[in-house]
Every structure is written in structure tokens, then in C-alpha cells.
Amino acid sequence: MTRMIDGRTRIFGVLGDPISHSLSPAMHNAAFSDLDINAVYLPFHVKAQELGNAVAGIRAMNVTGVNVTVPHKEKIMIFLDEVDADAQIIGAVNTVVNQEGKLTGFNTDSLGFLRSLQTDLNFDPRNKKVLVLGAGGACRAILTALSRSQTAWIGVVDIVIEKAEALATEFSGKFPGTQFAWFCCEPAQVTGIFAEIDLLVNATPIGLKGEKFEGINWQQLPPTACIYDIVYAFPATPLVQSVRDRGYRAADGLGMLIAQGEEAFFLWNGKWPPEGSMRKGISSLVQRE
User: Which residues are marked as active site?
Assistant: First the structure.
């Protein structure tokens, strides 16, 4: 359906630098079209030094809501009127809701991750053991999601063990119901942990440019283990393809991207996009490219 832009069209968008690669406009505009909502979602290329002005513009132009991507997820928080509790724990905002000039920040990555685990892997993290590779910003959203879901044990792995230790110690204080551990990213040590885990999560950027993990014996994972790669690629990331070839259940981050977008859509509109609508928008874009 072709939608006309008029004086009643609500404006949404995503702030980032770079931004031309973002799949969010295709996702949200597909949902607006399917629901016949008079709205448009645009990519906004915002340099770091202009972030404050961009946030002021959201208020001045009555932009209904925006998503936030790198490098602004952390820095935008100081410009907002309120930040949701989970976004504070994660230390980053990926969704902003504008209610008559009051800007509230949320982070929908945690809920998006959990929904993708359920939808794409039929995996419930309650009372399970999970190993997370990478102690960066993405890991914080994943730890928040898993901890709130009463995961029994979470191991954090990073090439800088001090980062893994600091993150595990911090979250241990926030979520005493979950046991945390930390490890250095040495292939032999990582593989040695595999035997007891139920889920492996790649929260590093490895695979974003087609890179492969080196020196890790995936076959040491239990046959029932699941693998989740927050990186996504078409048709699959090297990690997902590798472990699927070995018979494991695995999913990449496309489901998380879609689910976090659906959560943001609900925050802005009070209704969910039609099932499959955002995935259809991405598919149409990928096919054109």
C-alpha cells in the first residue's frame, strides 16, 4: 500500500553514525504499511558532536520516537528526561519515546534477545547454564535478560579478563539469584567449560565481516546445547553455519533485531506489528540489494 505523507504523518527514526546500513527503516515502514498507520520511519545520520542538537530536534519537531544505534546508545542518556530501570542497568538506550516533549529512554535489546531465544531456539534460560563470549556493551543487555529470567549460572568470557571479572562482579551484586563466573578467552580454557553449559552466546563482533572463531572445538559442546550468535548475516554467520553442520540448534541475531524492533514499536504505538511484518520488510530490502 502506498502511503501519503501529510500534515498528520507521525515521524519516527533511528540515530546513528554510520546509518545507511540500518535495516530498521525497512522493518518499521513495513509494519506501518501493514497496519495502515500514517507514519514514516527515517534514518538520521547524527555525528557524535551533534547528538545534543539532534535530541533537541526530537522535541522541537515533535518526533514521536527514535531508535538509537552506535555510537550514541550510552551518550544519549544524559540528554533524556527519564531512563527505564533496565536501560540504567545496561548502561545504554536504544529506544526513545516522546510524550509531549518528555523523552524517556528504554533498552529493548534484553526483551528482544529473550523473545528470539524462545521463537528461534525454543530455549528457556530458567535454571540453565549459559556461557557468554564478550564483555562489551551487548553483553550487558544479555546478562540483564538472562538474570531476570532466573538463569542459574552465567560465565563471561573476554580477551581482557579484567573486563569479564568486572562485569560478572557487578551483575552478581545486582542479581544475587544467579551465579556468575569469568574466564579469559583462551581457546583451551573456553572449550574446557563447554561440557556443562546449555547455551552459548556470541556477544562479540566476530563474524560481522565473515570472520571465524579460531582454535575452538565446538564438538565439545553437549549435543543438547544451543548456540546464539547476536551477529547476523545472510544466509548465516560462520559460527551458526559451523555448529549447524555439527548438528546443533543455532540462531543468529536477526531474530533479536526484529524482536527488539517489535518491542520499540509497541512502546511508541501501544500495539504490536503484525506477525512477520518486520521480517518481510527486511527480506524485501535484502532481495532488492
Answer: 73
